[in-house]
Amino acid sequence: MRIMEMCPDERPREKMRQKGARALSNAELLAILISSGTGGKNVLELAQEVMLSCGGRLALLATMPLEILERQKGVGKVKAITIAAALELGRRSFEELSIMDKRSITSPAMVYQIMIPHLKNIDHEECWIIMMNRSHYVIGKEMISSGSMENTSLDTKKILRRAIEKQCSYVILVHNHPSGNPRPGEADIYQTERLKRTLRAVEISLIDHIIVAEDSYFSFSEDQVCKIK
Hints:
The protein is α+β, with helices and mostly antiparallel strands. The chain is about 45% helix and about 15% strand.
């Protein structure tokens, strides 16, 4: 049976529009991604076959090599890539949720503890941002740039774009000084003020810039160096 010959409330797209994505089975959701059937099979039947090939488990489908998935009759390269891309987006979404810090960030010291595993014992500068919601929960952290031992570029446009994409309310800028001296230079001060103005224009607050050294850090919000014991 062709998909258009099915009752409207049984067609995956119409069913999703009427009842929402949660009402659809895995095969029905997959059918929306695949978009079209092949030969004597409609798109839903093809999707059901794909699910059978992985024992009905999305986890196994997500780890199936592309070359195996695309060899399935009726799938091919384009459909295989579409399926793999959708599953990767799901994985990344889950990963973002799993790394959310369930505590509210309340001090520069907490930021130091979050970031020191990333910045300890590296011989070059890296620039990171921590993005937070209104409750100061971490909803994402990302390396923006990596440079030399003495400096790294601050890509203001990239930070602005990522902050808007995350729909965050607050940003903390973090970078390291491999020299061991956490005090800011003139460039650090200038770039901090520029980023603060840029984010303020879209109602996002840069609440701190923290420079990390091996056993100390400098916080712009506290305007001091703090030693870690």
